[in-house]
TrEMBL record:
Signal peptide: none annotated. It comes from the Eukaryota. The gene is Insc. One of its GO terms (biological process) is apical protein localization. This is INSC protein. It comes from Pteruthius melanotis.
Amino acid sequence: LPSPPLPSSMHLIQVDSVQRWMEDLKLMTDCECMCILQSKPISIEKDEQNELILSSQYSTCDNLQLLLKRAWIISTELTRIAQKLEKNRWQRVHSMTVRVNCHVRSMVNEYNSFTRSSSEEMHQLEKLLIDKCSEFTAFTERCLQTEDEEILKSMKSCVNETLATVAQYFGQLIELVLTHEAQNLLRKIELSDSLYITELAISSLFSLAQEGAHLCRIIAKEGGVVALFKICRQDCFRCLYPQTLRTLASICCVEEGMHQLEKVDGILCLADILTDNSHSEATHAEAAAVIAQITSPHLTFTQHLSSFLENMEEIVTALVKLCQEASSGEVFLLASAALANITFFDTMACEILLQLNAMKILLAACSDKHIVDTPYSRDQVVTILANMSVLDQCASEIIQGNGVQLLMEMLFEKSSSGNPAEVAACERVQQKSAVTLARLSRDPEVADAAVKLSCIPRLIKLCRSPTERNNSDSVLVACLAALRRLAVMSPGGLEDSDFQQLVKPRLVDSFLLCTNMEESFV
């Protein structure tokens, strides 16, 4: 029942199409200017800024964003060229090749206008790429002038090969540029004792990390995790801890980041921050976010968890306290997400939670709509309850905290916005609440409370009505399991038709019956 990673910032490709067009328009028009001018700068003075270069008006962070956007356009164009080439659309192939040629030259000019420390290797790659793009454009122009199908067929493999080389050089150049920029930012973080410069560098690093896993790997390989934990160990940078920890959470989504975290005893540092009451709530919340990231059940690499177990009790204690004292829904979400993930990989965590009266604290938080205010928060709470429900002592805690009533309410979880992420969170809440009921109903007292609260009719409706469960198979299976457990404890609560169809057959047969109900309404 893993909870998915917390929602992250949108990447370039996931924005509104009109907004994307508006942002790209200035790059495209610049490209057309470059076509006319044959990519030659207007200025002949080296020290003068070329007015056609868009990046001159931006900061370093904006320059990097502009570079990434230009790179995204080039990458998309190269993919489209390959598609058109497959269909022998030579006119389109040539025009797109000219456009890529111009975009590449623009990108190189823009980058060189704001960087002052390009390496010789980078200059060589830039020249190789520009030369190969020119060759590519000339090649496709020759293809355009040839009508002989046999000659075109023989030229096509050469065009494909040139396209592959352009893509290779382009990929290598972008990798080198991003590595270079990551190194520059990390050098500033390492060497600067100025709060302002360090804050700007960390902010730029965070923006880079938001561009995806590949950027996070580059930052981690260049020592980003080490540099950021160094900041978190210096009192003079305390005001930057939240921002620094947020950046760490982004970078630690990749294995390279986790390796670095292990090398610098990062978990011990996080434990120290969480247990230090002199830190702000914002710092504690961001430390909880890093814990949530590195304990995610979705990660396939777990070598760091051995050192986590050594500090688990104090980390869990601090997170429960953070849940109890959270002043906002966001802080509660981060702390509860960390606790939810921790309960997956060691049952000892569930035992510690029981000793800390975590069940009572979480159930009380759910009654405060300002704190547990979204399906995402309820997803974290019910994940913890589901994982704790394997312990026998959990049943009495649930009864005392009016937890069965909460689980019943969670069976009615519905998205108010229709947002796909929120709908998925609602499905997980329904599924996990049914699972928790099924596990806890082995205790007669819990089963009796569930029957009195009319859980059985609700479970039957979720099984029989696909729209109630948003057509989710996982919710259906969980509800069938819970219904069968309650039917054993209270056989009189079901009508004969429900018993014959939903309880008596094998689970797989009841499942198929319920999924076929959906087809009969179509």
